[in-house]
Specification:
The complex is a heterodimer.
Chain A (H helix, E strand, L loop, with lengths): L3 E4 L2 E4 L5 E7 L6 E7 L5 E8 L5 E2 L8 E7 L2 E6 L8 E8 L7 E2 L3 E5 L1
Parallel strand pairs in A: 2-11
Antiparallel strand pairs in A: 1-3, 3-8, 4-5, 4-9, 5-6, 7-8, 9-10, 9-11
Chain B lengths: L2 E3 L4 E5 L4 E3 L2 E3 L5 E8 L6 E7 L7 E2 L2 E6 L4 E6 L8 E9 L7 E2 L3 E6 L1
Parallel strand pairs in B: 2-12
Antiparallel strand pairs in B: 1-4, 3-9, 5-6, 5-10, 7-8, 8-9, 10-11, 10-12
Classes of the chains: A mainly beta, B mainly beta.
């Protein structure tokens, strides 16, 4: 099956710094990518949807200036958490879909800890 | 807006026995897809089974099967011959068939398998 990778798998940063998370589709063209956030023992909450070459569409309540999403190519999307604070600590999961295909493939996730 | 409800936060089953996880959803769409995802301790999301709403026949994948009741908007997952490796969080998810829509997840059910 199709593979989606995320890097880094975990990151610890100081409050006030920015962190970039990469999401790559390894063997298919990810025309659409989704970014989710998952708190401990909770479900996946959609943060934003991005189509290659277009601006991301953010869900209500998600600050677009804080969570910068770039989907510049068909195989790479990045999520940058700007001026991170401890409340941004969470598990971030990306997911990708090719064209109008049904299946959505998930990356392994990135655990962000902000001290 | 579409919603997905999983009313069982936790379930347990004896090894080799059968367990059913419940899921209901709310939508005004006539055509859509339903999914069950498994999230083991590694937190990698794994597709277990999917169902197209236009298909009357219930989907099956080896030991996993669903009971899809479209009129009742119910989509339960049955796991037969439960194995220790089935222990995980299980998420029910919905996706409308029109447009480039994301998956909407339920809150999840934590399944424990007792040896």
């Amino acid at each position: 099956g199709a593979v989606v990778s995320q890097h880094p798998s975990w990151v610890i940063c100081k409050s006030g710094t920015s962190v970039k998370i990469e999401c790559r589709s390894l063997d298919f063209q990810a025309t659409t990518m989704f970014w989710y956030r998952q708190f401990p023992k909770q479900s996946l909450m959609l943060m934003a949807t991005s189509n290659e070459g277009s601006k991301a569409t953010y869900e209500q309540g998600v600050e677009k200036d804080k969570f910068l999403i770039n989907h510049a190519s068909l195989t790479l999307s990045t999520l940058t958490v700007t001026s991170a604070h401890p409340e941004d600590s969470s598990f971030y999961i990306c997911s990708a879909r090719e064209g109008g295909l049904l299946e959505q493939f998930f990356g392994p996730g990135t655990r962000l800890t902000v001290l | 807006a579409q919603t997905v409800t999983q009313s069982q936060p936790e379930m347990s089953v004896q090894e080799a026995e059968t367990v059913t996880l419940s899921c209901t959803y709310d939508t005004s769409e006539s055509d859509y897809y339903l999914f069950w995802y498994k999230q083991p301790p590694s937190r990698q999301m794994i597709l277990v089974i999917r169902q197209e709403a236009y298909k009357q026949q219930n989907a099956t994948e080896n030991r996993f099967s669903v009971n899809f009741q479209k009129a009742a908007k119910s989509f339960s997952l049955k796991i037969s011959d439960s194995q220790l490796g089935d222990a995980a969080m299980y998420f029910c998810a919905y996706r409308a068939s029109s447009g480039n829509t994301p998956l909407v997840f339920g809150k999840g059910t934590r399944l424990s398998v007792i040896a």
